[in-house]
Write a structure and sequence with these properties.
The chain has about 900 residues and is of the alpha/beta class. The chain is about 50% helix and about 10% strand. It is built from 34 helices and 26 strands. Strands 4-3-5-2-6-7-1-8 form an eight-stranded mixed sheet, sandwiched between helices. Strand 11 and strand 12 form a beta hairpin. The longest helix is centred in the middle third of the chain and has 35 residues.
Length: about 900
């Protein structure tokens, strides 16, 4: 497609030159030079962002997945190199860092590009360094010399700051990066990009906000019913009246399914036995892939929210004999896989299911999820990007940043397990997943396919597909590590000020503005109500306040009497005996009854007597059936042979009960009310004051009272709003003060000074940072060997996927078991201190990986370790790498003369072997 500004073959040389001049007007020399690196013209939003960067501004670019946002980040790299400066390119995940590192090395050469992640450190002093965001945060707190000459920080996938576990890191970087550094923030399309941009302008200065919602490759929505593909939307009307509506054929299918379900329900509940109703069977995954292949919609990514489901899908395709590759492609795939896995031992490959993995790849199908070995995942990404893999079954983690676009995205279900419950996909999640559909420069259009099922409403799918609400909300809160590093760098007061610059406080203040506006409106209304309540005889609001005090006192006395009566009633029930005849005073069970079992000690909320009523009904009563004390009015003998389940026995006892009790007992016993409120001195005085008040004699007194009642009701609401405003104002700073109070109590801070222990805490970047530092200080790990230390430190990084009621995990015996128990006790003490200071950051240590870490550090073989742990290779490798990262921090933070330093390094050396050692970057 051409526009008036893009050259075409029909234009003369002079026309093409004029179009070029118009297109590049305003472009500086660096941008003109940069554009020659691409064989396509930059989009308007890319040009606008690049011009802003060259003009000296920072930028926020919010655009759909696949639109080419990274071009802006690459221009920052170009500017840094041409200006002899540095650029850090940060990403949220290591895989994306590895991918971006490979791209930049290809363009600028290995001497100019470095990589810093938890796994790799390559050429860290290069002018261009790709890193995870946490690495940059740690550099900032450490005051690393690597920051010298830094001019640009690219923050790819900056919308990660909404992540509740890691999001705070992005805000820390944005706030603490030196003012001379320009931020290049690249975000997915979010509905509050302007708000985020305003915050960036406030904390970083001049920042251009560029929002582009145009997809470079148009996306078409479909639903797959069986193996038949339907368009989700159809056009109705013509010209200006043209509208996209949900396909009526899909609505008819959904209605037919509802009717069929009702018929089947009727069959199941009817008396006659009928044939079992047919359950809806979703299409086989292999059939779905074949249907997409026939329609020319491959390559495709099918999102299945289950790792086991992804692996099962590949096996289903293999068993179905599905083949999507030519003989030449299969040979090319095998050669690439063998090259990439040449460093992995044959025995390890066997354990990792290499043969099935390769067989699937050669046929053009693969799984992609966090349970796979990182090398295997990278192979899938590489082959898919080259067009050799045609169908990938993936979990949603693939949608988070990896550059792996497809022609089609298939979504099997519209709900997923979030770790606690099955929840529906949000419009933002749907947009993120389907954003992978449509490869720029390859596909004319992208396709999103939802697999239909009886629970899928086409209207709901249409709502997901057409809604663009994906708000970016801060998850920022201070941590112990953050506090000691900030106080150490700038002091307590300046640290509080910096934290108040966070996006979290910015959003809280925005919310406060709306609440404050409502408070102001209420205050104006209160003035009006007060005027309407004015009385010519005196101060009616004073009189109304007295009436309210009287009403409140009467209500208070009523509550006290009710509470007292309940307590007396509970005590009276405790004295009942079998055979006592009582009068149940109120409720559905009111009337005469005989006690069969007093029910003392049966329930935690008080006695629960079992009684037989005069109507032969056996009931279990509770304290709620007795608003006042109960006394036996008579006694009858209960036969020893009496059984509540025997109808005749119940009739006989009920007859005895009727004969024993007079007819008018109910009326006689229900008399007698509560003591009048007039006995209360305060009430007597208030009533006298009301009668003496001049307003009491006003003819319009009750009209005034209605306005006064409205005044008091609105005043209560306004006071609640004021409390909400106070609660949100300075919320981050108040949390910071509580964190500092914990640290002062434990000796990590002394006013504005960071103690030696505090400096050690400042080197620990972990969710359980304080517990790690306390374990070091208490010397819990001093006498452990390297494998025992690995087991103990694993409890600080690992989080089980097991339910809370799972059996206790196996742990190493001896010193390690004692140390783990000591860590749990220490956590309990810290948890108590946190509760006293009204914070909650530290979860309980998780011992679920301790035995596995111990065995791996002891040198056991991979197959034995994985079998015993019941873990996938990917989960195992990820857990060990997180453990290695913390062991490195423990080694650095331990006192210089500590035995732990050597033990931690020995543990790292012992664990960095086999599948763990296979580096992602050569």
């Amino acid at each position: 497609m051409t526009t008036p500004d893009t050259p075409s073959a029909d234009q003369s040389p002079s026309e093409r030159y004029a179009a070029y001049r118009k297109r590049t007007a305003g472009n500086g020399p660096a941008l003109l030079d940069f554009q020659t690196l691409y064989d396509f013209a930059l989009d308007p939003f890319q040009l606008e962002a690049c011009r802003a960067l060259e003009g000296g501004s920072g930028v926020l670019v919010a655009a759909p997945t696949g639109s080419g946002k990274t071009v802006v980040g690459e221009f920052a790299v170009h500017l840094a190199l041409t200006g002899g400066q540095k650029c850090f390119y940060t990403t949220p995940i290591k895989a994306l860092s590895n991918q971006k590192y490979a791209d930049l090395v290809k363009r600028y050469g290995p001497d100019n590009v470095g990589l810093l992640t938890g796994d790799n450190s390559v050429n860290g002093e290069a002018p261009i360094v790709v890193m995870t965001t946490e690495v940059l945060r740690n550099m900032l707190y450490a005051g690393s010399h690597t920051l010298t000459g830094l001019a640009f920080v690219v923050m790819d996938e900056v919308h990660y700051l909404a992540d509740r576990f890691r999001g705070a890191v992005w805000e820390e970087v944005i706030i603490h990066v030196p003012d001379s550094v320009r931020i290049v923030a690249l975000s997915a399309t979010v509905s509050n990009a302007e708000e985020f941009g305003e915050w960036l302008q406030e904390v970083r200065g001049d920042t251009a906000v560029i929002v582009d919602e145009h997809r470079p490759v148009p996306l078409f929505q479909h639903m797959l019913v069986g193996t038949r593909l339907y368009d989700l939307f159809v056009d109705t009307g013509k010209g200006k009246d043209r509208q996209a509506k949900v396909n009526p054929e899909l609505r008819r299918i959904a209605l037919d399914e509802v009717r069929r379900a009702k018929v089947n329900q009727g069959r199941r509940t009817g008396r006659r036995r009928t044939a079992r109703p047919q359950r809806y069977r979703p299409p086989l995954r292999s059939d779905v892939v074949e249907r997409l292949d026939r329609a020319g919609l491959l390559p495709a990514i099918t999102f299945i929210f289950s790792r086991a489901g992804c692996d099962a899908a590949v096996m289903q395709c293999l068993h179905a004999g599905l083949r999507l590759t030519s003989k030449e492609e299969a040979e090319e795939i095998r050669a690439h896989v063998e090259l990439r896995t040449s460093d992995i031992a044959a025995e390890d490959l066997r354990i990792l299911g290499y043969d099935d993995f390769l067989s699937g790849l050669e046929r053009g199908v693969a799984a992609h999820h966090a349970g796979m070995l990182p090398t295997f995942k990278e192979i899938v990404e590489e082959l898919f990007t080259r067009g050799l893999i045609k169908a990938v079954f993936a979990t949603e983690t693939l949608a988070l940043g990896i550059n792996m676009p497809a022609r089609t995205v298939v979504i099997e279900k519209l709900d997923k397990w979030n770790g606690e419950a099955h929840v529906d996909l949000t419009p933002g999640e749907y947009t993120q997943l389907t954003g992978r559909a449509g490869r720029r420069g390859i596909d004319v259009e992208g396709h999103a396919v939802v697999v239909w099922g009886p629970s899928v409403d086409p209207g709901s799918v249409a709502g997901l597909a057409s809604t663009r609400t994906y708000p970016l909300n801060s998850s920022f809160q201070p941590s112990y590590n953050m506090a000691v590093n900030l106080v150490g760098a700038v002091g307590n007061e300046r640290a509080r000020t910096l934290l108040e610059e966070s996006f979290a406080q910015f959003q809280a203040d925005r919310a406060v503005v709306g609440l404050a506006r409502q408070v102001h409106k209420n205050e104006e209304a209160l003035e009006g109500y007060a005027k309407a309540a004015k009385c010519h005889l005196g101060d009616f609001m004073e009189y109304a306040a007295m009436r309210r005090r009287l009403s409140d006192r009467e209500a208070e006395l009523a509550r006290e009497r009710s509470s007292s009566r309940r307590a007396e009633a509970a005590r009276s029930l405790e004295h009942l005996r079998p055979g006592d005849v009582i009068l149940v005073p109120s409720g559905r069970r009111s009337g005469v009854a005989v006690v069969l079992d007093p029910g003392v000690g049966r329930r935690s909320d008080g006695p629960a007597p079992l009684v037989l009523t005069i109507n032969r009904s056996v009931q279990r009563l509770s304290i709620l059936d007795f608003p006042r004390p109960v006394e036996p009015i008579e006694r009858i003998r209960i036969p020893k042979s009496f059984s509540p389940r025997n109808p005749q026995a119940r009739r006989d006892l009920a007859s005895t009960l009727r004969n024993k009790v007079p007819d008018d007992v109910s009326e006689r016993k229900r008399g007698g009310g509560d003591a009048p409120a007039a006995d209360d001195a305060e009430i007597t005085e208030l009533r006298a004051e009301l009668r003496r008040h001049p307003v009491h004699a006003c003819d319009e007194r009750e009209d005034h009272a209605r306005w006064a009642e409205r005044f008091f009701r609105l005043e209560r609401e306004t006071e609640q709003l004021r409390r909400r405003v106070e609660g949100r104002s300075q919320v981050i700073a108040r949390t910071f003060d509580r964190v500092c109070a914990v640290l002062e109590q434990l000796g990590y801070l002394d006013g504005d000074e960071v103690t030696d222990e505090g400096r050690r805490l400042g080197r620990i970047y972990n969710e359980l940072d304080l517990l790690t530092a306390e374990s070091l200080r208490a010397g819990i790990w001093e006498r452990l060997d390297h494998a025992e230390l690995a087991a103990c430190v694993s409890a600080l990084v690992y989080e089980s996927r097991q339910p809370d009621d799972a059996a206790p995990p196996k742990t190493p015996a001896g010193a390690a078991q004692d140390a783990l128990a000591a860590m749990v006790r220490l956590w309990g003490e810290l948890d108590s201190i946190e509760r006293d200071n009204r914070v909650s950051f530290l979860r309980e240590p998780d011992l679920g990986f301790a035995w596995t870490a111990y065995r791996w550090a002891k040198g056991h073989e991979l197959d034995a370790v994985l079998l015993d742990a019941d873990m996938t290779a990917g989960d195992f490798v990820r857990a060990v790498k997180q453990l290695l990262d913390l062991l490195g921090q423990v080694s650095d933070a331990a006192p210089p003369n500590s035995h732990i330093r050597k033990t931690a390094r020995k543990a790292m050396d012992a664990m960095r072997r086999g599948v763990v050692a296979y580096s992602s970057v050569a």
